[in-house]
Design brief:
Elements lengths: L3 E6 L5 E6 L6 E7 L13 H8 L9 H11 L2 E6 L4 E7 L4 H11 L6 H18 L3 H14 L12 H6 L2 H11 L5 E7 L3 H12 L19 E6 L6 E8 L8 H12 L5 H7 L6 E9 L2 E10 L4 H18 L2 H19 L2 H15 L5 H9 L3 H10 L6 E6 L5
Parallel strand pairs: 2-6, 7-11
Antiparallel strand pairs: 1-2, 3-5, 3-6, 4-5, 8-10, 8-11, 9-10
């Protein structure tokens, strides 16, 4: 029996979507809440991620130990994550346990937010922030991103800062929850071997009583101007370079060209930056990555090496960017198309991956595309598409950040 896509919306606005495959050997459920770091008031930076942690601390009638024990009894692969765009709670199980996975995940979406749990977890979050502060990439990325977005909330740190988390109160978190974790901002994505109609009835019994509507907060696109910052830190003995530039948004079909461009330029191996920097012994690592966001996108280029070589590394990156348009070949596109076709097809065999793909897309865009439709758009990218992308998003509008030890500055 073929895979089918189905949707159902509850009267309170909560949307249920499903990519149902009776032949699959597992089932997956994910609750996607359309809120993240970019939706936070700056003084509350990090509240979305902190709240994600608090969801596992139990409800008014289910304590944290019981909550986690129930997942363990199902043999579930469950977790959660927070980004700038969305917060997701998910579980994958064998098909006969799908109703139980839906039940416990839906129940945990209405947490108790106890003061004692809040105080304890605040220490965990502060330790996590301290851990990232010891990672040179994250030190450079967070400060470069803040400069790049110039006060726009896309420059918010997902974890928040030591100051914002220390000052955050339980009541502020509860108020944020009430305004953002509303049914009309929630999508439940299902995938794999399960009964969609039965799942909808179950979800309606669990989530139908949820009340409230989103606060109407709107997202905006950031303005960008070229910026540069040069950081020093005595804890690190290597040099690090990061470039951030504008790129197509999640709403723009040019994102498929941007996806291929990032891989041609800076995939971990057999890319322009790999051959020009790593293979030549100039840099220890290099990469390029593309991320599409709501109304905006980001192209990232990163490299590390000897601090004294950072100017040369930057010059080589500039050279590769300048020559990229003229050097593109049909072989470049064929190689990347084959890579993405393999990656997409392999992920489509796992209901958990399919649930993530449809859930993230529906949360942001409110529509659905099959795997075949996604592959068609990747295959439709030609050299002219990538050249047009390079003209529309010139690298001159980028933000450049460097990090090195003080002695080499």
């Amino acid at each position: 029996m073929a895979t089918t896509f189905q949707t159902h919306t509850l009267s309170n606005g909560l949307c249920i979507i499903g990519e149902i495959d009776p032949e699959a050997h597992s089932a997956a459920v994910g609750f996607f809440v359309r809120t993240g770091a970019r939706d936070e008031p700056t003084p509350l930076m990090g509240v979305s991620h902190f709240l994600e942690h608090m969801m596992f601390k139990g409800t008014e009638d289910i304590d944290a130990e019981t909550l986690n024990k129930r997942y363990d009894e199902l043999g579930a692969r469950n977790n959660a994550y927070t980004s700038h765009e969305v917060t997701c709670f998910y579980a994958s199980v064998i098909p006969e346990f799908a109703p139980e996975a839906i039940d416990i995940t839906a129940r945990m979406m209405r947490p108790a937010l106890r003061e004692q749990d809040f105080d304890t977890e605040k220490g965990v979050i502060l330790e996590e922030i301290a851990m990232y502060a010891d990672n040179p990439f994250w030190v450079l990325y967070e400060q470069t991103s803040e400069a790049h977005y110039g006060g726009h909330p896309l420059g918010h740190r997902v974890l928040g800062t030591k100051d914002s988390i220390t000052r955050l109160t339980r009541d502020q978190m509860a108020d944020y929850f009430d305004h953002r974790y509303t049914p009309d901002e929630t999508t439940v994505a299902l995938a794999g071997n399960l009964d969609f109609d039965a799942a909808c009835k179950q979800i309606e019994s669990l989530c139908g009583p949820w009340q409230g509507a989103s606060d109407g907060a709107t997202r905006t696109a950031p303005a960008r101007e070229p910026k540069r910052l040069d950081l020093t830190d005595a804890r690190f003995d290597r040099g690090y370079l990061l470039m951030l530039a504008g790129a197509p948004s999640a709403q723009d079909d040019d994102r498929y060209a941007a996806t291929l461009l990032a891989q041609i330029l800076g995939s971990p191996d057999n890319s322009r930056l790999h051959w020009a920097l790593v293979d030549q012994g100039l840099a220890e690592e290099s990469q390029a990555a593309y991320e599409s966001n709501d109304l905006s996108g980001e192209m990232l280029i990163y490299a590390s090496g000897e601090p004294s070589k950072l100017p040369e590394i930057e010059a080589v990156i500039d050279r590769e960017l300048a020559g990229l348009s003229d050097s593109l070949s049909v072989d470049d596109l064929a190689r990347m198309n084959a890579r993405f076709a393999t990656a997409f097809t392999v992920s489509s065999e796992k209901p958990g991956d399919r649930m993530q793909r449809i859930g993230r897309r529906w949360s942001m865009l409110g529509d659905y595309r099959t795997l075949e439709q996604e592959l068609e758009r990747i295959r439709a990218v030609d050299i002219a598409s990538i050249r047009g992308l390079l003209e529309a998003y010139p690298s001159a509008t980028r933000t450049v950040g460097t990090l090195r030890p003080p002695a080499s500055a």
